[in-house]
Amino acid sequence: MLVLVAAALGCVRPAPLPPVELVDVAALDPTIRFDLRYAGPDNFTGVAVYPAARCLLRRDAADRLVRVQRRLQADGLGLLLWDCYRPFSVQERFWALVPDERYVARPERRGGRPVAGSKHNRGAAVDVTLVDARGRPLAMPTRFDDFSARAHRGAPAPPAARANAARLEAAMVAEGFAPFPTEWWHFDAPGWGRDPLLDVPLVAPPAAPPAD
Question: How much of the chain exceeds pLDDT 70, in percent?
Answer without folding.
Answer: 87
